[in-house]
Design brief:
Blueprint: E1 5-6, H1 21-27, E2 36-39, H2 46-57, H3 67-70, H4 81-93, E3 99-102, E4 111-112, E5 116-121, H5 124-136, H6 140-153, H7 166-175, H8 184-192, E6 200-204, H9 205-210, H10 212-222, H11 229-238, H12 241-245, H13 248-251, H14 280-294, H15 296-304
Parallel strand pairs: 2-3, 2-5, 5-6
Antiparallel strand pairs: 1-4
Helix pairs in contact: 5-7, 10-11, 14-15
Length: 308
């Protein structure tokens, strides 16, 4: 039996993440029964899971909601925390089942017995290349906002600069524990430790692409929602890769004004192999570090999923 609340044991403040906002969330009442947190590294598929959860909870009725308005990325460093907290407070008062997005390691989040946590992982090489593409498409004003906010609290306010080439970014990302944005090994290892906790579910991006209905059923079972065949078919259709990627402007978890191109999901490389952009030495170095930091079993799951 898990305690009612496991408090965060670390603080994460970097270019993109701001974990202290969870203290404010707890201060306004915290979690209630049925709250859902969707977590994972950047570009691992969290938006896809948000969409699936939204569809499950709404009987497949909502098709084009802007996810960043209804399922906020609360711990964004440059998000409007006051507004997001207000939205979450209002949804709690109105009786809505709340969905909150996070890119934090589990030990930087409050883990509450009332809430359910869905972690989505993805092959780390794909994450790194896709993350570079995602950051490269941030508008100039967004990068300015990120750097301005970072400078207000950092003792060494070095501006975030995105290298032009994915290979260069990937090497820096590996050498600097996430380039001040997303330490995939820290995030993965922290959630892996909770994989057997009753209110934590691990989903892998590869499994979503190979058998979407099976993974939707896993999520529904985890949320104690029984899906008949009609609802399942509708959810599969509404959550297909093509449908989600084709509605990025309406479903993206940041406003379209934050990115310089909205013709597809920023940074999505689902149809392009990472090997096309990463040379063998970088791939080998990533794989070696993954085993060192995660252990063989966890590194294998991060690579290709399954084990569900």
């Amino acid at each position: 039996m898990m305690p009612d609340l496991v408090a965060p044991t670390k603080i994460v403040r970097d270019y993109l993440n701001y974990s202290p906002v969870w203290k404010d969330f707890l201060g306004q009442g915290g979690f209630v029964e049925g709250d859902i947190v969707v977590a994972g590294p950047f570009k691992a598929g969290s938006m896809w899971i948000q969409r699936i959860v939204q569809q499950i909870l709404s009987d497949a009725r909502k098709k084009d909601d802007r996810l960043f308005e209804t399922t906020p990325w609360l711990d964004s460093s440059w998000g409007n925390h006051t507004r997001m907290l207000s939205v979450l407070r209002q949804r709690r008062t109105s009786g809505y089942q709340r969905i909150i997005k996070s890119h934090l390691p589990a030990d930087a989040l409050p883990i509450a017995a009332e809430a359910r946590y869905i972690f989505v992982g993805r092959n780390g090489k794909d994450v790194g290349v896709s993350f570079h593409d995602y950051l490269s498409k941030f508008s100039a004003s967004t990068i300015e906002d990120i750097n301005r906010i970072y400078a207000t609290w950092s003792a060494h306010p070095t501006p975030l600069v995105i290298p032009h080439y994915a290979q260069q970014f990937f090497g820096l990302w590996l050498d600097t524990n996430g380039y001040g944005c997303c330490d995939i090994f820290d995030i993965m290892s922290s959630w892996w430790k909770l994989k057997d906790t009753p209110n934590v579910l691990l989903i892998h991006y590869q499994n979503l692409t190979e058998d979407l209905p099976e993974q939707i059923k896993r999520v529904a079972d985890f949320l104690s929602v029984d899906l008949d065949s009609t609802r399942m078919n509708a959810i599969v259709q509404n959550c297909s890769f093509g449908r989600v990627s084709g509605r990025v402007e309406k479903t993206a978890v940041v406003g379209a004004e934050r990115i310089s191109s909205t013709n597809r999901i920023p940074g999505d490389h689902a149809r392009r192999p990472f090997g096309a952009e990463l040379p063998p030495p970088l791939i080998e170095r990533f794989d070696r570090i993954a085993v060192q930091k995660l252990g063989t079993e966890c590194a294998q799951w991060l690579e290709a999923g399954r084990n569900d």
